[in-house]
Amino acid sequence: MLNLNSLNPQQRQAVETIKGPVLILAGAGTGKTRVITYRITHLIERGIPPASILAVTFTNKAAREMQERVTKLLPRNPKSATGSGSRNTEHGTRPTLCTFHSLCVRILRQHIEKLGYKRNFVIYDESDQLSAVKKILARISAKGEKTDPAAILSLLSRLKNGGDRAAVFADESVRAMAAHIRSRYESALRSCNAVDFDDLILLTLRLFTRHPEALQTCRSKYRYVMVDEYQDTNAAQFQLVQSLTHEHRNLCVVGDDDQ
Description:
Layout: H1 9-16, E1 22-25, H2 32-45, E2 53-57, H3 60-73, E3 96-99, H4 100-111, E4 122-123, H5 126-140, H6 149-160, H7 172-191, E5 194-195, H8 197-210, H9 212-221, E6 224-227, H10 235-245, E7 251-255
Parallel strand pairs: 1-7, 2-3, 2-6, 4-5, 6-7
């Protein structure tokens, strides 16, 4: 049984409040992640299926640390015939503790065919992206004209993530160039059944908008959602969380209001 006596009254209230929205604001080093891991464990002890629990953060390291902490907090099942005990998760399932991008990969692997891609899509890293941009620039640039592919890639990322209001796009020629290259870039990736990291969240949102049944499947699966370092979410990540929790509203977010 999870011992909550080590938590202060506010932390304990956050852990034990399992229905409806919960906002936790605290500074660095005050045990915010600890509250999330205790809350996940408490949910499981209260009979919530682990597969219904989702916790998202920003780095793989943070997700691994969260997983390790939850694993240590969960009680072990009685020893089996082999003499080893296993952590007590229902039917061998585990809560989903991952990054935003990892979550979207999971969703897209199941549903991306609805958007015209194959399930075995490739995720381009920065090297792959730069190679694609270089090929496009080689086709459209005037002879002798030199353009930095990395700068173009940065522009594309800002444009795709809603940064079209940034000062750089006030120049109509820059905006037109970025839009033109973006169209060619997306066509090039699609022809290779590839996506980039920005696409992972944006395609998931497109999926939810165009195919409400896919969104409903995800809502039904993830009934209890937690977000660490909530102050760092961008507009697309915020929209993703809102989409998943709009109906059940079982959302717990943890953030530092000084950051």
